[in-house]
Amino acid sequence: ALEDDGRQIATAINATPLGLHPDEPLPISNERFHGCKAALDLVYVPGETQWCHALRARSIRVADGRLALVGQGLRAFHRFFPDVDPPREVMRAAVEQALSR
Known about the structure:
Strand content: 5-15%
Order of helices and strands: EEHEHH
Radius of gyration: 16 Å
Helix content: 25-40%
Strand order of the largest sheet: 1-2-3
Distance between the termini: 33 Å
């Protein structure tokens, strides 16, 4: 992690809990995204975080933490059942269903 020194960024990652609640400030100010091409918000909420929404409005490619959550689940499954292929698509669909509310 780097302290915000005002330099232009090409990729941004939110690895803070900011975004779990809609009244929280954005993890990185929108003014910092001139030239940014992609962002990853490790927070996942039903719908999408305010930060993801703001980035999409600026035509920045963004993903939220759903894929990371599925990846963590796959690793945990494999740890308990090392000889069984984890049901990746079932797990992904379960996350999508749980967060579609």
